[in-house]
Specification:
This protein has 336 residues and is of the alpha/beta class. It is 45% helix and 10% strand. It has one domain (8-332): TIM Barrel, CATH 3.20.20. Helix 12 (248-265) links the parallel strand 6 (234-236) and strand 7 (270-272).
C-alpha cells in the first residue's frame, strides 16, 4: 500500500522559521596566529563520520520531508565540455520544477513551493541561464577563475568574475591556487581570495578548496580558515573534477572551521559539498552532519548547498517510491 501523503505540518516543521539571507562575510585582516595549532586527528574524524549513518534513522514521512528540503539546497549543475545553450535552458526548466507535479500533489506540496537552490554553469552560459530563470527567484552561479584548475593569469581570473557578474550571476564559485596551500603560502592564498571577493561586488563568493588535491585534512582546515578570513561567503569542497571529491571526512573538518570562524568573527559562513553526492542516501548523511555540527539554520539554502547533477533524479525516484511503493527506472527521472 502507498504511504499516506505528507501533511503540510511536517514540511513546515522541517522548514522552521524562514531565514533572511545571512549578512555578507566582510572578511578580516589576515592573522596567521589563527592557523597556529590547526592540526586534525584523522582517526578521530573517521570515527565521527562513521557514526553519521548509524546514530540517526530517517524513514518514511520524515525521509520524504528531508529529501524535499535537500532539493531546495541543490545547485543544479552542468559543467561539461559538450554543454549547449539548449541543455542549460532545459536544466533551468528542471530547476523551476524539479519534481513532477503528480508526486508533489500526492505529497501535499504546492508545485510552485519547491525549486532548486541555484543553477551552476560556465560563464559562457550565464546570460542564457539568467534569461531562462527570470522571475523564478533562482540565482545563477558561475564557476570562475579558470575552473577547474585555476592556472590562468590572475588578472584574467578577475576579469572572468567581473564578466559573469555583469551577465547576471549572483554567485561566483572560484577555485583557489592549490600551490599556495601545498607550499603553506597562506598570505598569497588570502590575497588571492581577497581580490576575488572585491571583483565579485554584490555577488556571493563560494571558495572551492579542491580538497582532493590539497592532500591533508590539516591543509583543508587551514585553507578553509584563510578563505573565510578573506571574505568567502561559502566554502566548497571540490570542483567535481578531482580524483577524489566531496567526502564526509573533509566536510566534517570544513564545517568545524565554519563553527570556529563564527565563534571568533560572529559571521555565518555557508558550506557546499560538491562532486560524488549522487544518491538520496548520501545527501541525508550530509544533512545530518550539518544539523549535528552547525545547527538547524544550516539545512537551508542560505547556508547549505549541494553541487550535483544526478542527485535530483535519485531523490525523485525515492519520492515516487514513497508515494507509490514502487521504484521506477532511473531513466524515467531525467535531470533535464
Amino acid at each position: 500500500m502507498p504511504e499516506a501523503p505528507l501533511q503540510s505540518s511536517s514540511v513546515v516543521a522541517l522548514r522552521g522559521t524562514p531565514l533572511v539571507h545571512p549578512v555578507r562575510n566582510p572578511g578580516m585582516p589576515f592573522d596567521a596566529s589563527w592557523l597556529d595549532g590547526l592540526r586534525v586527528n584523522q582517526s578521530a574524524v573517521e570515527r565521527r563520520t562513521a557514526t553519521l549513518g548509524t546514530r540517526r534513522s530517517v524513514k518514511k514521512e520524515a525521509q520524504a520531508a528531508w529529501l524535499l528540503k535537500a532539493i531546495t539546497c541543490i545547485d543544479l549543475t552542468t559543467l561539461n565540455g559538450d554543454d549547449t545553450e539548449g541543455r542549460v535552458r532545459r536544466l533551468c526548466a528542471k530547476a523551476r520544477q524539479p519534481v513532477r507535479t503528480d508526486l508533489l500533489e500526492a505529497l501535499g506540496i504546492a508545485p510552485q513551493g519547491i525549486t532548486t537552490g541555484a543553477v551552476c554553469v560556465y560563464h559562457r552560459f550565464v546570460a542564457a541561464a539568467v534569461d531562462a530563470l527570470h522571475g523564478s527567484g533562482i540565482p545563477v552561479a558561475a564557476v570562475s577563475t579558470g575552473f577547474p584548475a585555476g592556472l590562468i593569469p590572475h588578472p584574467l581570473k578577475l576579469k572572468e568574475i567581473e564578466a559573469s557578474v555583469a551577465d547576471g550571476a549572483q554567485e561566483i564559485d572560484i577555485v583557489v591556487t592549490r600551490e599556495y596551500v601545498l607550499t603553506g603560502n597562506w598570505q598569497a592564498l588570502y590575497d588571492e581570495v581577497r581580490d576575488f571577493r572585491a571583483a565579485c561586488g554584490p555577488a556571493h563568493l563560494k571558495a572551492i578548496l579542491a580538497t582532493g588535491d590539497i592532500r591533508t585534512l590539516s591543509n583543508v582546515a587551514r585553507a578553509s580558515m584563510v578563505c573565510m578570513m578573506a571574505g568567502a561567503d561559502f566554502i566548497k569542497t571540490s570542483t567535481g573534477k578531482e580524483g577524489v571529491n566531496a567526502t564526509l571526512d573533509v566536510s566534517l573538518v570544513m564545517v568545524r572551521m565554519i563553527r570556529e570562524y563564527q565563534e571568533r568573527a560572529g559571521v555565518l559562513i555557508g558550506f557546499k559539498p560538491a562532486g560524488g553526492v549522487s544518491t538520496a542516501k548520501s545527501v541525508l548523511s550530509y544533512q545530518i552532519l550539518m544539523k549535528e555540527e552547525l545547527g538547524r539554520a544550516w539545512l537551508e539554502p542560505e547556508l547549505f548547498r549541494i553541487g550535483a547533477s544526478s542527485l535530483l533524479a535519485d531523490i525523485e525516484r525515492q519520492l515516487e517510491h514513497y508515494v507509490s511503493g514502487r521504484y521506477s527506472a532511473f531513466n524515467r527521472h531525467p535531470v533535464a
